Amino acid sequence: MRSYKHPAIEDVRPEDFFHALSDPVRLEIVRHLAREQEASCATLDGGRPKSSMSHHFRVLREAGLVYTKPAGVTHMNSLRREELERRFPGLLDAVLAAIG
Amino acid sequence: MRSYKHPAIEDVRPEDFFHALSDPVRLEIVRHLAREQEASCATLDGGRPKSSMSHHFRVLREAGLVYTKPAGVTHMNSLRREELERRFPGLLDAVLAAIG
DNA sequence: TCGCTTGTACGATATTATTCGAACAATAGC
DNA sequence: GCTATTGTTCGAATAATATCGTACAAGCGA
Questions:
Q1: CB of B10 within 8 A of CB of B87?
Q2: First CA to last CA distance, chain B
Q3: Is the pLDDT of residue B15 over 90?
Q4: Which pLDDT tens digit goes with each residue over B46-65?
Q5: Partners of residue A17 in chain B, C-beta under 8 Å
Q6: Tens digits of residue pLDDT in B32-47
Q7: Residues 6+ away with beta carbon under 8 Å from B88
Q8: E strand or H helix at A98, and its extent?
Q9: B51-69 per-residue burial string, b: 16 or more CB within 10 A, e: under 16
Q10: Across the interface, which of B14, B19, B97 has its CB nearest the CB of A89?
Q11: With helix as H, strand as E and coil as C, how does chain B read?
């Protein structure tokens, strides 16, 4: 599994950010990560196949929302809170409040 | 032209809101409406065909972002600022700041 | 009423997303 | 090295969106 290509936060376009949030499955992931700080991919599937989850995590990564780092055999995911706050001040907090 | 079906603000789902913001053309519209208070559809086409613009305005309307009222032969559009503030506190402001 | 303007509705096409199975890669532990 | 675990990647099918031409509806003014 190895390392991922996370975009530089400055390169994240607003439309990509919003697109990442336009799917209920991904909102669920973001909601979970907001509470739990970090989580592996497997703990977040709602019975969905691995390949589907992998897809959603990729979208979130490429939109700059989620940082994924290898941790042994699993992958730990977390929100890029500080960086997003720099890039879009107040936005992530408002999003998290909106999605509960 | 006549009246439109705007959703009740309580019925607007976050994913619909974000999906509406996931397109560059619609972001342009929102940006413009943030500055100008209100505008007709025609003043916002960037040379794009009317039917394309109509589609985008519809998406924005159905996501609860834009209110459209007939004004003679044209349609005046405006952001549903107060209502959105009630529904998603702080979100629209953060979005407008993010998209410049 | 006729003509002009603004935007919607419909329909077709093209592009993009989502979903998921199956095969593969990387790591940990034995 | 072998095996089990965790995700990724690929490919294909399906679904959802975007784009735009054409036809239509509604209001305004002469």
A1: yes
A2: 32
A3: yes
A4: 889 999 999 999 999 999 99
A5: 98
A6: 999 999 999 999 888 8
A7: A94, A97, A98, B14, B17
A8: helix A91-99
A9: eebeebbebbbbbbbbbbe
A10: B97
A11: CCCCCCCCHHHCCHHHHHHHCCCHHHHHHHHHHHHHCEEECHHHCCCCCHHHHHHHHHHHHHCCCEEEEEECCEEEEEECHHHHHHHCCCHHHHHHHHHC
CA(B59)–C1'(D16) in Å?
A: 13
Query: Are A95 and B91 in contact, with CB atoms under 8 Å apart?
Result: yes
pLDDT in tens, B58-84: 999 999 999 999 999 999 999 999 999
pLDDT value of residue B49: 96
Chain B contact for A86 (CB, 8 A cutoff): no
A88 contacts A96 by C-beta, under 8 angstroms: no
CA distance, residue A28 to nearest chain B CA (Å) = 11
Query: What pLDDT, on a 0 to 100 scale, did the predictor assign at position A46?
Result: 85
